């Protein structure tokens, strides 16, 4: 009796190929290449590769070092959220301030002060204005003299920079140069941030 080839028997899959280990020469080459490569991005803890696992297994254990007291771990304090960036005072509000339709709640004159004293005075003034719930204040810096004495008008240049610092941004929404009737280039309208209840 002749046997017919059976189409019902499925073909058996090939047995999986065994991976061959790296030779010492190949391992040394791989390690030298791996040391020279810089990752594009930092990866989270990844599983070690087969080659490095084999290398770790063959490395002789190091003698135990003398026990050192463990350094105390520093717990990072939760960082305060960054205050929002400064926003310019709107055209309408500036117009209302310059025409007297909106009141300037308080004024601070920094004329004749040193930078250190002016910085302290400005910070204290804005803290009180913030605490008291004031909306608009006027900071008078003076125009300074133009000419040979280039150091004049230091506060006129410094106050806008101070208002951009994080310590001031938590107190101030924004600022603009004042109208000529309130001092023009030598003064600033400052909108005070509302205190959170």
Pattern of helices and strands: HHHEHEHHEE
Our count of helices gives 6
| Mean pLDDT across every amino acid position | 75
Write out the strand line-up for the largest beta sheet, numbering strands in chain order: 1-2-4-3
Shape descriptor reads: elongated
**Which structural category fits the helices and strands?**
alpha+beta
Helix content estimate: 25-40%
Amino- and carboxy-terminal Cα gap: 100 Å
CATH fold name of the domain at 91-192: Ribosomal Protein S8, Chain: A, domain 1
CATH class call of the domain at 91-192:
Alpha Beta
Instruction: Indicate the low-confidence ranges by residue numbers.
Output: none
Question: Architecture of the domain at 91-192, according to CATH?
Answer: 2-Layer Sandwich
Strand content: 5-15%
Largest sheet: 4 strands, mixed
**How big is the Rg?**
36 Å
Number of strands: 4
């Amino acid at each position: 009796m002749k046997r017919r080839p059976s189409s019902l028997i499925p073909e058996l899959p090939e047995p999986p190929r065994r991976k061959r280990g790296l030779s010492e020469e190949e391992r040394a080459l791989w390690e030298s290449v791996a040391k020279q490569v810089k990752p594009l991005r930092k990866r989270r803890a990844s599983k070690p590769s087969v080659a490095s696992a084999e290398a770790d297994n063959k490395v002789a254990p190091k003698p135990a070092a003398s026990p050192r007291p463990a350094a105390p771990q520093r717990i990072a304090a939760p960082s305060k959220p960054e205050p929002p960036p400064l926003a310019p005072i709107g055209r309408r509000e500036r117009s209302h301030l310059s025409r007297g339709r909106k009141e300037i709640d308080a004024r601070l004159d920094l004329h004749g002060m040193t930078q250190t004293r002016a910085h302290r005075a400005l910070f204290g003034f804005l803290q009180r204005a913030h605490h008291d719930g004031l909306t608009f204040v006027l900071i008078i810096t003076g125009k300074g003299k133009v000419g040979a004495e280039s150091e004049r008008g230091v506060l006129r240049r410094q106050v806008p920079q101070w208002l951009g610092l994080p310590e001031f941004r938590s107190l101030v929404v924004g600022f603009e140069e004042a109208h000529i009737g309130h001092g023009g280039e030598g003064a600033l309208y400052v909108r005070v941030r509302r205190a959170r209840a």
